[in-house]
Design goal:
Structural class: alpha+beta
Radius of gyration: 14 Å
Distance between the termini: 40 Å
Mean pLDDT: 95
Order of helices and strands: HHEEHEEEEH
Strand order of the largest sheet: 2-1-6-5-4-3
Length: 130
């Protein structure tokens, strides 16, 4: 799977809120980090699966669309920067969640993700659900 196909599959997993689809993109020892927001890193495919299953099953946000705004190649052929926006609704309120992903993909599997989510948009989701 190419990096572009991996990014598209990552976005489909977000759209479907499917922890299995997302986790299956990761190498067994893959790492998913959240530099903003104080969340602990997810170490390994099964930790990614369990954490996203819990998070997405509890989230009141219904994902309507995930857009790749831009895909930036880097000097390292394994690494891309993805600018994205997720359009969600919470209790009828539309909220756009912009974010950046820095992905390292090796042999068709994600080995490292740095996930920069807009924490203000996440707080708006939480407030709309209350």
């Amino acid at each position: 799977m190419s990096i572009e196909e991996t990014v598209a599959a990552f976005h489909r997993a977000m759209l479907h809120k499917s922890a299995d689809e997302l986790a299956d993109l990761y190498a067994e020892e893959g790492l998913h980090e959240f530099p903003f927001g104080g969340l602990s890193p997810l170490r390994g495919r099964e930790e990614v699966r369990a954490a996203y299953r819990a998070s997405w099953s509890q989230s009141p946000a219904e994902v309507q669309r995930v857009r790749m705004v831009a895909l930036h190649a880097t000097s390292d052929p394994e690494v891309v920067v993805v600018e994205q926006e997720a359009d969600v609704t919470v209790a009828g309120n539309p909220i756009t969640v912009p974010g950046l992903l820095v992905l390292r993909v090796r042999d068709g599997r994600i080995v490292h993700t740095r996930d920069y989510m807009d924490t203000y948009a996440i707080s708006r989701i939480r407030a709309a659900a209350a």
